[in-house]
Description:
- The chain is of the alpha/beta class.
- It has three domains: about 5-40 and about 210-435, ANL, N-terminal domain (Rossmann fold); about 45-205, Rossmann fold (3-Layer(aba) Sandwich); about 450-540, GMP Synthetase, Chain A, domain 3 (2-Layer Sandwich), CATH 3.30.300.
- Helix content is about 30%, strand content about 25%.
- The strands form six sheets. The chain has a nine-stranded mixed sheet. The protein has a seven-stranded mixed sheet with strand order 8-7-5-6-9-10-20, sandwiched between helices.
- α1 crosses α7 (about 210-230), α3 crosses α4 and α7 packs across α8.
- The longest helix is centred in the middle third of the chain and has 24 residues, at about 210-230.
- The protein is globular.
- It starts with 5 loop residues before the first helix and ends in a 19-residue tail after the last strand.
- About 45% of the residues are buried.
Amino acid sequence: MVDVDPVALAADVRARLTGPGGAFELGNEEVRGIPLPVWTNRRRSILEWLDASATFGDREYLVQGERRMTYAEHLAAVERLAQVLHSDYGVLPGKQVAIVAANSIEWVVTMWATLSLGGVVVVGNAWWTSREAEHALERAEPQVIIADTKRESLVAKARASVVLTEELLNRRSSGDGKPDAFRDEDDPAVIVYTSGTTGHPKGATHSHRNLLAVVEYHRYTDAAAAELMAAFGMPARTEPRRFLLSMPLFHIASLHNCVIPRLTTGDTIVIDEGRFEVERVLALIEHERVTNWAVVPTMAHRVVEHPAVSRYDLSSLAALSINSAPSSPALKDRVRAAIPTVQASIADSYGLTESSTAATLATPTDLITHPTSVGTTIPSVSLSIRDADGERLPDGEEGEIWLRSQFTMLGYWRDDEATSAAITPDGWLRTGDLGSVRDGRLFLATRRSDLILRGGENVYPAEIEAALDEHPKVVECAVFGVDDPDLGQAVAAIVVCEGVDEDDLRAFVGERLAYYKVPAHWRLTDTALQRTATGKVIRSALAL
Length: 544
């Protein structure tokens, strides 16, 4: 191996790639009235990337079970469906198409068909209840809803036509031709829902600029990795990679950071079907020769603890990232031991739906020297630690993480109040997460103090408390997270009530909220909750 300082080399590669004349040069441009660093060599339309994917021809883009769809077949399917959406359902530039379905080939084709019309993709949460779906879709006002059979009942009350995924690709248009799909970079492209802090999901609205920036970021990381491999005498990659998609497409980890950028690099997406099951996924990795996999900590934990992991040939797996929730150095060590081929490639990151992609990245080298950090900012991202008054704090002090970049969402769909609370007039995104910066690296303290991170899903206590408060026999309640060895955190509730039991309350919440938001642990009492002088529940005093 070549004797090279990996930290210095990585810094040099980054400077060359993003500096003047570099393939991923950064330069300042005005974005919605705010000067920001942007990729100067980016394409100006996501449709340019869609058209360019024709060059990959017979390569596999999507694999689902025994089904295989090449890039050429994908482009043809996108064209056919776009004509159906336009001619039969009136989808025009700027109009919304909602998808409420499990991961599938049809899901991906619908997304690209909508973008090809200049439409806005409304990414529904496949785990919503009918009430959650009704609220989100009423605000989004889609022209048409694409749903699978299992979720048809969720969208029954929506004021839009519903097309089932099972019949989607067999549809033929009643007309032909498509509208001019030109969209400005700062027009909406995708709406991804986050759990609501005040009782309802909020639609984080991402622009075409956001998607184009994410594409460039992934192409940049590929280019940087190739240079680093060459410097260490490692052979260059010659075959397309195969990415396992095992997280829902209503997460940016799957949509923005896998399905969309991989279309631009000619790689393959292998779609796992159904709830996460360790042996099925391991068999899929072996059978499809998966090379890249992004997981949440709960998935990683279940894999390394499963006795069958050593029975499968996972030698194709070359890169693994742990996303969506904090993961401990001990868990990463167990992953390295269980899957030796990813020992030198495990990475960690920090980001949120509102930031479109990672804001910081901890490379394998970073994790050797700073195992508890989530790394340094990715190119073009500014990060600041602020106090309660919004004043900057010096390195080492803990405060709220603020971000500003070309990746930041436009705002929350049709929710000006929530948008103003999250994004400052000069473009800073208040994440609500706490952390500190040391040695140029971000260290997380906690994720949104009241937030519960259950198996990689964000769960807001206020949303569950609002549902419980609707029960006529509930006097008051408080919801909080408790440690869980598998999920990271589980949802717990203390309920002041009379004449009702856990089963009744569990069923009541389950009718209103997605299954993962239903408390797993309960304490029913007739003693009032402890509150501050201003009437707020003392959350530090909550315990089962």
